[in-house]
Amino acid sequence: MAKLIKERSRKAGLPPGALVHIGEKKTEQIKITILEYDEMHFREQEAKTIEECFPSKDKSRPTVAWINIDGIHRSDILGKLGECFGLHPLIVEDIMNTDQRPKIEDFDEYNYIVLKMLHLDGEIVSEQVSLILGSNFVLSFLEGDGDVFRVIRDRIRTNKGRIRKMGADYLAYCLLDAIVDNYFIILETLGEKIESLEDELVRNPNPRVLRAIYHLKRNMILLRRSVWPLRELIGGMERGESLLIQDTTRIYLRDIYDHTIHIIDTLETFREMVAGMLEIYLSSISYKLNAVIKVLTMIATIFMPLTFIAGIYGMNFKYMPELEWRWGYPMVLLIMAAVGIVMVFYFKRKKW
Fold it and tell me: So what's the pLDDT on residue 2?
């Protein structure tokens, strides 16, 4: 987060719409993939130049075009694509800024959608995904060179389901659905980690468990930042008045909205469990500390009268009759042992 804030300072003084990439550059080469399809035809190619994407804007074409761009750090390429498809300069600026909050912006000719694709690799890794929904095209922008939409590509290639029978709005729904479904995988993995940590926390609370709890808590914060605005995004698409989204697609968007609510409820449950685990850890450590102090206090209490007796006979006064008594030494030891045993039985009787 601090790195992103520092990179944002590079835009200080620049005019609105200045194209400056903000975020980590996750790929050196930009990869452009074009898929065009309808119910009967399909074409896929990897474009060498951005100009190869320009014909896909033609509204008279009967096909749906999906242009996917892996890598958003080249302002010249994104600037040309934005000019061709009539994107506002501020939208292109937002695409290059990887610290965007999930949102949707409705324009007359297109909708701009931005959300987070999450991966779990030890910790949650966030990648921004930007979508431009037009009347017959979808533009998708990813930070890195990772085929996160491989399942959607396979469905288009093999003509499975209804995706090639529907329009660009249904394609945008499929991309959103793939991202939201991935959240369930992450929640399932986090749930398993929480259960494992709970068992270890009960058996043996230690600093390693505490570090794992704080690691989970940090992941929950990142997941919450990505999921909570998604409810507003999907709800806006479902209840909005955009002519680019057909009524037949809004039904499917309602299903994603339900999934989002389910994810949020599960996430809040996990956050409460992690917070409870932290309290259990602190209580366990406090209990162990109290047990140690209790043992030490009992030992000190037992030795207090013994130390008192030893102190009396350690004064070495001349006229102490016990000093000349033949059985004085073993008798003092016997008395000290008896005092200690009596105190131990007394403590046990009181269940201290």
Answer: 45
CA distance 293 to 297: 6
Find the angle CA(90)-CA(91)-CA(96) to the nearest 5 degrees.
Answer: 95
Cα separation values, 52 from 29, 33, 49, 57, Å: 17, 10, 6, 11
Measured between alpha carbons, how far is 235 from 244 in angstroms, rounded to an integer? Answer: 15
Distance of alpha carbon 186 from alpha carbon 118, whole angstroms: 8
Tokens coding 76? 């010249």
What one-character DSSP code corresponds to residue 251? H
pLDDT-flagged residues of the chain (< 50) = 2-6
Q: Would you state the pLDDT for residue 54?
A: 86
122 Cβ partners below 8 Å, 6+ apart?
none
Q: What is the pLDDT of residue 146?
A: 65
* Structural domains of the chain, with CATH: 2-283 (3.30.460.20), 313-349 (no CATH)
Question: pTM, whole model, 2 decimals?
Answer: 0.79
Decide: 111 and 171 in contact? Cβ < 8 Å.
Answer: no
Backbone angles phi, psi at 212, to 5 degrees: -65, -35
